[in-house]
Amino acid sequence: MTSTTDQVAGLDDLAATTLLRFATAGSVDDGKSTLVGRLLHDSKSVLTDQMEAVEAVSAARGQEAPDLALLTDGLRAEREQGITIDVAYRYFATARRRFILADTPGHVQYTRNMVTGASTADLAVVLVDARNGVIEQTRRHAAVAALLRVPHVVLAVNKMDLVGYEESVFAAIAEEFTAYASDLGVPEITAIPISALAGDNVVEPSANMDWYGGPTVLEHLETVPVSHDLTACPARFPVQYVIRPQSAEHPDYRGYAGQIASGVLRVGEAVTVLPSGRTSTIVGIDALGESVDIAWAPQSVTLRLADDIDISRGDLIAPSTSAPAITQDVEATVCHVADQPLAVGARVLLKHTTRTVKAIVKEIPSRLTLDDLSQHPDPGQLVANDIGRVVVRTAEPLALDAYADSRRTGSFLLIDPADGTTLAAGMAGESFASKAETTVQADEEGWDF
After folding, report:
1. How many CB atoms lie within 10 A of CB 31?
2. How far apart are CA 215 and CA 205, in angstroms?
3. Rounded CA gap, 10 and 3, in Å?
4. 390 close to 332: Cβ distance less than 8 angstroms
5. Which residues contact 147 (CB under 8 A, 6 or more apart)?
6. Strands (E), 308-446
7. For the residues of 91-102, what is the DSSP string, one character each?
């Protein structure tokens, strides 16, 4: 058995991880793909054959210099149209930090893809064309970053070379964006003037903007403080699979396999299984083929409990001292990502961690107006790329945390039960139990709860 000292040392190593997940966002032609290409190229993270392919395509188009945007625009439609459609993930590293980058689209109809790219990001880079300033799509991206609780936002004011590297242009845009993002609750905003095409302030400081004394984009990415300490949150263990070999070697083995979403679990700890509310004690933790005394997020492990309890995929195991409340009434903010509208009365599937349940959209109290951050009351429905509040009633109880407390166990998806299309990405607000138990007659398909 691995010693507790070694396991705690591993916990310290996890906290010291130098990995930064970040996403780029911006309107069409703001230069996101060029910025990413410049980052990869100037940080010497591009393979020779990749660069040769980019040079060949650029030459075929009659371009004198390589088009660095092609390093991330991987789909044929993206290269032909010169736009980003899908989320392009890139992995690179410098001497100071490792990076996972999500280059997200700029078109309004692809804003839903930013939700995907930014959902796990520690930092978001929002690009603005210095000639256009803050536009509606800029505000939309700032709102998505704020809703997804992205802790750091970088405003990259691009194409400074096209406005004569004027400090006043940069200052006005930075002031407007900072005021808007601060009202949204973004905790940290860093504004950097750049030219992705020329390389100014991307990796190397710009000689054309001596009035700017802050970090380059890469320097900021390398030094921004990032905490990956999921162990500080209460432990949450969504069950993915029940293991029962029933073999001669393991005749009575019953284990519950899954990935720890947050927190730390220990042998001997009292736990509660939700939504049933049954309690037991952890008698064993199996990880990578051996027994351990302690396990932490995001490890994948198998738990063994002292009691034979009816547990299946979708149940949540949590310490009895910090178990979440269960509810069938979910109030949340959602980003609507489907082409079909989401209307009051819609029958959906709600997927939370490993649990999927039937649900009905009971109310859509408001839709966010991005121009002034006001709430448009009772819109009746949400359409693609809308951000709004919803109240959903589920057929079975769920153990949700507030998204503000846990991005992992406070998030969910609304899915079309007919074809499996993802309708909306949700961030749970205050989970509340029904104040009064009411009985509603089920309709012929059993979808009223």
Report:
1. 25
2. 8
3. 11
4. yes
5. 333, 335, 387, 427
6. 316-319, 326-336, 342-343, 347-352, 355-369, 374-377, 381-382, 387-399, 411-415, 422-428
7. EEE-SS-EEEEE
| Tokens found for residue 124 | 């978001």
Mean per-residue pLDDT for 158-165? 96
**In terms of Cα–Cα distance, which of 238, 209, 201 is closest to 352?**
238
User: Strand 355-369 relative to strand 241-243: parallel, antiparallel, unpaired?
Assistant: unpaired
Q: Rounded distance, CA 105 to CA 72, Å?
A: 11
Helix H segments across 119-270? 136-147, 167-184, 217-223
Instruction: Say which amino acid occupies 130.
Output: A
As a whole number of Å, the end-to-end CA separation of the chain is 48
- Quick: pLDDT tens for 377-434: 999 999 988 889 999 999 999 999 999 888 889 999 999 999 999 999 999 984 212 2
User: What are the φ/ψ torsions at residue 35 (nearest 5 degrees)?
Assistant: -60, -45
Q: What are the φ and ψ backbone dihedral angles of 321, each rounded to 5 degrees?
A: -80, -15
Query: d(Cα 279, Cα 420) in Å, to the nearest integer?
Result: 34
Q: Which residues contact 117 (CB under 8 A, 6 or more apart)?
A: 23, 25, 87, 102, 103, 104
pLDDT in tens, 192-219: 999 998 889 999 999 999 999 999 999 9
Q: In angstroms, how far apart are the furthest CA atoms of the chain?
A: 77
To the nearest whole number, what is the mean pLDDT of the chain? 84
Residue 372 Cα distances to 139, 143, 185, 429, angstroms:
10, 11, 14, 22
Between strands 152-158 and 189-193, the pairing is parallel
The alpha carbon dihedral of 413, 144, 87, 381 has a sign of positive
Helix (H, G, I), strand (E, B), or coil: what is residue 337?
A: coil
Alpha helix locations (H) across 318-402?
A: none
Flag whether the pTM goes above 0.85. no
